Amino acid sequence: MDAEGAIAEHLAAGRHARAFDLVVPAYREKVFRLASSILRDRAAAEDATQESLVRVWRALPRFDGRAALGTWIYAITRNTCLMELRRRRPTVSLDDADSEEARQAAASVAAEPTPDPERDNILRLIEALPGNQQQVVRLFYLEDRSYEAVADRLGMPLGTAKNLLHRARKRLMELARNVENKAT
């Protein structure tokens, strides 16, 4: 039985602590990579990884299985990272824009890593896909899983997974062309 199956079995039996013991080694590195891509700072990504896994631990008893476990964990991680980015954002009174604090805040914002618009655009395009196509694209491209692993993870025949991925690629090309045409 793979880790996903074992985790699901423990969750179904109410053994949340045992399920979490399997979640950590299965997802720690993936959570860290996602946090790194969002925060672009190794130390902050390590902190966000730890915070995300703590949030997963706390929320695990409420996991209802409507989404895939990995998708649910990534959503928690993404939200944790976005909260960290919001927390970093300095707040300065507009009434005192000439103060030293305002100048330091402006310098701090200017020094922050710039977002990756290309990656953000790709993620937006993926989010525009139907749910099952989103899942196969995320598993195959973002998690570097094989066709077989994608099919296994989603509980579908290999041909179905390949077909969904093919359709998703075609749809992504259409969406990208539409975005490009709107920009010109």
Care to describe what's here?
This protein is an all-alpha fold and 184 residues long. Helix content is 77%, strand content 0%. The chain is built from 9 helices and no strands. Helix 3 (42-59) packs across helix 4, helix 7 packs across helix 9 (158-183) and helix 8 (147-154) packs across helix 9 (158-183). The longest helix has 26 residues, at 158-183. The mean pLDDT is 82.
Secondary structure elements and pairings:
Elements: H1 3-12, H2 16-39, H3 42-59, H4 69-88, H5 100-111, H6 117-127, H7 131-142, H8 147-154, H9 158-183
Brief digest:
This protein is mainly α. It is built from nine helices and no strands. Helix 3 (42-59) packs across helix 4 (69-88) and helix 7 crosses helix 8 (147-154).
Mean pLDDT: 82
- The beta-strand count equals 0
Largest sheet: none
Count of separate DSSP helical elements: 9
SSE string, helices as H and strands as E:
HHHHHHHHH
**Helix percent band:** over 70%
Shape type? flat
Question: pLDDT below 50 for ≥5 consecutive residues: which ranges?
Answer: none
Structural class comes to mainly alpha
The span between the termini is: 51 Å
Proportion of residues in β-strands:
under 5%
Radius of gyration: 20 Å
Keywords for this entry:
single chain, about 180 residues, mainly alpha, 9 helices, about 0% strand, flat
